[in-house]
């Protein structure tokens, strides 16, 4: 099966490096994406909008022969919002979407409009900005490694508004890998009407898997993350 890996804010395709081997060894074809404007710290991202990242994923989906089967989208953090919009554009081409410490972003909502921007981009904030739950298992060495590799995200991606139009997106099977917050908590918040989870509540076929760690399981528990992804989609 074709697996398209979509990174979250501040990350490029290499952020999946420790997860990919398990997927490849199981016989799948993995494609870890580096989205527009995230090619390097010096890349020009001043004009990059959320739609550009969505279009980049759709272009990858379209590059595969439909006769070869549907694709699986895996989105981490803000990459989950991008995956959801790509499904909205190509609902008949996606077999399953896997949200890694993420969930689908509803129409008219932004990935994160609160992050501080500098010169048209959003740098990785100081660790003190994040909640304690985000940083579980991200020790000093891992924090240094993440900060070294971090690439500022386009402000147009972080603050851009999601655009959705095809309700067939609700029929695509989904897996939510709950990391910093448990699946039980997510379900309780949905029942309470949490606005950020309203789109997730509309999905018709959702599996929940708990992988207790912080917001970056691809760095803190990569082997376990690979196994959970495999369990969600089965053997090639």
Automatic annotation (TrEMBL):
Gene3D superfamilies: alpha/beta hydrolase. One of its GO terms (molecular function) is catalytic activity. Residues 3-225 form the AB hydrolase-1 domain. It comes from the Bacteria. It holds the Pfam family Abhydrolase_6. This is Pimeloyl-ACP methyl ester carboxylesterase. It comes from Micromonospora pattaloongensis.
């Amino acid at each position: 099966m074709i697996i398209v890996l979509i990174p979250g804010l501040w990350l490029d395709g290499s952020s999946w490096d420790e997860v990919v081997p398990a997927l490849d060894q199981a016989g799948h074809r993995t494609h870890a994406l580096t989205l527009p404007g995230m090619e390097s710290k010096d890349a020009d991202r001043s004009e990059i909008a959320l739609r550009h990242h969505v279009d980049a994923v759709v272009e990858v989906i379209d590059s595969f022969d439909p006769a070869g089967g549907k694709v699986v989208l895996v989105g981490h953090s803000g990459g989950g919002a991008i995956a959801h919009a790509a499904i909205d554009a190509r609902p008949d081409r996606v077999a399953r979407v896997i949200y890694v410490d993420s969930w689908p972003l509803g129409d008219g909502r932004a990935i994160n409009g609160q992050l501080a921007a500098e010169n048209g981009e959003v740098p990785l904030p100081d660790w003190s900005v994040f909640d304690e739950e985000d940083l579980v298992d991200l020790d000093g060495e891992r924090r240094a490694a993440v900060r070294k590799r971090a690439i500022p995200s386009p402000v147009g991606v972080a603050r851009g508004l999601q655009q959705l139009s095809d309700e067939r997106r609700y029929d695509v099977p989904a897996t939510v890998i709950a990391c910093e917050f448990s699946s039980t908590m997510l379900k309780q918040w949905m029942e309470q009407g949490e606005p950020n989870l309203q789109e997730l509540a509309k999905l018709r076929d959702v599996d929940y898997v708990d992988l207790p760690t912080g917001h970056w399981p691809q760095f803190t528990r990569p082997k376990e993350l690979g196994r959970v992804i495999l369990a969600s989609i089965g053997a090639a």
